[in-house]
TrEMBL record, chains A, B:
GO terms for cellular component: mitochondrion. This is Unannotated protein. Coiled coil: none annotated. Residues 339-394 form the External alternative NADH-ubiquinone oxidoreductase-like C-terminal domain. The keyword Transcription does not apply. Its cofactor is FAD. GO terms for biological process: aerobic electron transport chain. One of its GO terms (molecular function) is NAD(P)H dehydrogenase (quinone) activity. Belongs to the NADH dehydrogenase family.
């Protein structure tokens, strides 16, 4: 029997899960513009000097080793539906029987002017290293000024990403930077801006309130019901017309499907791909979509959260769907098993909500810690991350404060 | 008693040693263009995916914590000898009673055309990440070509740096890259080019021969008595007129004093600063130089090797000299205590030469390993490096194969 050819665009959580689930029944090729998977849930720890950049990345060829799946480092340019081929920017044409689009997401600015020019995103290792370098540069400026100049770091967006970022920044400033030069650290403000009336909208209001209190204890200025109208150089203009100085603005207000989906000319809904409940892209029965780039599939028509568990479940599901097609069985409809949400705020501080059970504080924090270690790909990253975390925890230090962005030589 | 003001230009091994030795008797400021020290002896392991970039760096403020020394992230522009001030590119003027120049070295091209355009240097973290990214990109190209195209990586210079680099590259290609995609890895050639008639000139000829044999066992093509005339795009032109294809050329043929020394307008000899046996810069009794940037101080007029132990010994020595001046005691003359040389070639393979004792193989390799861990600054880097090394050793893998240079987003 000739195995069907499956091309998977994107080597993230979803793409790699699909690849590994498919290699026994299909001839699989994974395509990604990076030769590594980025472990996005821990990227904010690279931004805040807690983890080494290399430890939140994992070589895709390493992840696929022994599976028989092929890898191509490239970006897709277009799909030739007639000949069932996808064209890559490496000039290759890959034949496919099934195409899985798992390209993930990019920062969404919701049409707010200035976001792409003046805010820093949180989606790639390079962006994380840029945030780290910018924070450390501003800190070095304050050390040099030796006066009362203040610097503000603003995180826009009070979801899990924004909360984790703001908490980690506050700990960096009040911990290691204070030890480095106390007076300079005392002149850095960390602020979290949220348009809604509470933080962490996916959680219960009691955990939202707890999160706000915990962040404020760490020194974060939490601003609720504060909508951003526009960003300017070192400045945030609010909807009410007032403005805030902001030397560094980090955009955690939302993401949208990767721009590559426009290029591929597939049907979209909102800013994600339009998919059936089977996870097939609308009108294209041999093209599948999963994870952040796939639009609403729930029975209520609500889009699923853009988190790793969704992509992983969908990756496994699509592999089974393709198997059903091969065996001439009917397709099923995807339904997401929500295993709960969690967000870490800082040392011994996190919130976890699983099926009505609410946890906060140290137990929640330990749960967060072990689940992230468990999901981290590869033994070396586990060991390295555990070593960095243990060190940070015991010494209250963060060793990776190096300015290593592309600006330096 | 008012403490004298000491400004130290450069936060490498020598500068930081001097700083820590001086804080009890002087008011110390360290100036460096990076906010971290780079552990240069292990940088080649970043280039070859063995270590995370963050683990060969250490925050200078962390190294100076508790010592009372100040830090400025900046580069020196000029010295005002009359007012005893050094001007920084951050627009600051720092007063000094003593100035210590510890700016290190940069790649030397010996006037060979094309080196700065077509060769990759080995002096900074960014250069190391560029080498890693270039090697991995060429490997991904070969994976895509799926034909008999060959790629050559050439290391120019058969000293310890070139030997360690060539050995580590060969192990990367024959180990992890072979596991990633055996056919592509088999099409990569690693070559070491040396103008002299043996490798490792500072060692005994028997260890040079052993090193050559060990490298060849790893698959490195060792070319002795091969002088480079010029570099072109993807090509090396030799003195005899012949040429070699070389997709990646790594320059390990030598270093010279940092170019900042020209800017500071201090007397030079060859391409390093001209210093007295007291380590004072010629004609400037209150300006000192140490490490790679300091010229010959030996009684025989021979320049000292550009290695960390020289800089560390000189850093301590200059601190004592300044103490002697404060106590109105006569200055002494520096003499270097040579503690031996070592170079690692690969897994269980190294050469060590200490006072006539010659070691090779596993014992030499273990000696190299422990001495480097001992010299590595900071507990976190020790733990992280040990974790990466243990992992690499047990699994024959190298986890940091990520393409993370400034070219990607």
């Amino acid at each position: 029997m000739i195995k069907p050819k499956v091309v998977i665009l994107g080597g993230g959580f979803g793409g790699l899960t699909a690849a590994r689930s498919l290699t026994s029944i299909a001839d699989v090729t994974v395509v990604d513009r990076h030769n590594f998977q980025t472990f996005l849930p821990l990227l904010y720890q690279v931004s805040t000097a807690g983890l080494a950049a290399d430890h939140v990345a994992y070589p895709i060829r390493g992840a696929l080793r022994g599976s028989g799946a092929k890898f191509r480092m490239a970006s897709p340019i277009s799909i030739d539906h007639k000949n069932k081929q996808v064209k890559l920017d490496s000039s290759e044409l890959l034949d496919f029987d099934h195409l899985i689009v798992a390209l993930g997401s990019t920062t969404a600015d919701f049409g707010i002017p200035g976001v792409s020019e003046f805010a820093l995103g949180m989606k790639t290792v390079n962006e994380a290293l840029t945030i780290r370098a910018e924070v450390m540069r501003r800190f070095e400026d304050l050390c040099r000024f030796e006066d009362n100049t203040r610097f503000s770091i603003s995180v826009v967006g009070g979801g899990p990403t924004g909360v984790e970022m703001a908490g980690a920044l506050a700990e960096l400033v009040r911990g290691p930077l204070k030890s480095d030069q106390a007076n300079a650290a005392a002149h850095i403000d960390v602020r979290l801006i949220e348009a809604g009336d509470r933080l962490l909208p996916p959680f219960s209001p009691s955990l939202s309130a707890r999160t706000k209190k915990d962040l404020e204890k760490l020194g974060v200025q939490v601003m609720l019901k504060t909508a951003v109208k526009e960003l300017e150089h070192r400045k945030i203009i609010l909807k009410d017309g007032s403005s805030l100085p902001s030397e560094i603005t980090i955009w955690a207000a939302g993401v949208k499907g990767s721009p590559a989906m426009q290029q591929l000319n597939l049907p979209t809904v909102g800013n994600r791909l339009s998919v059936e409940q089977t996870l097939q892209v609308k009108n294209y029965p041999n093209i599948w979509a999963l994870g952040d780039i796939a639009g609403a599939v729930g029975k209520d028509g609500r889009a699923l959260p853009m988190v790793a568990p969704v992509a992983i479940q969908q990756g496994k599901f699509i592999a089974k769907q393709i198997d059903r097609l091969i065996k001439l069985k009917p397709l099923k409809e995807f339904s997401y098993v929500d295993k709960g949400s969690m967000a870490t705020i800082g040392r011994n501080k996190a919130v976890v909500e699983v099926k009505g059970i609410k946890l906060a504080g140290t137990i929640a924090w330990l749960t967060w810690l072990w689940l992230h270690l468990f999901y981290l790909l590869g033994g070396r990253n586990k060991i390295g991350t555990m070593a960095d975390w243990t060190w940070n925890y015991l010494t209250f230090d963060r060793g990776n404060r190096h300015i290593m962005d592309s600006e330096i030589n």
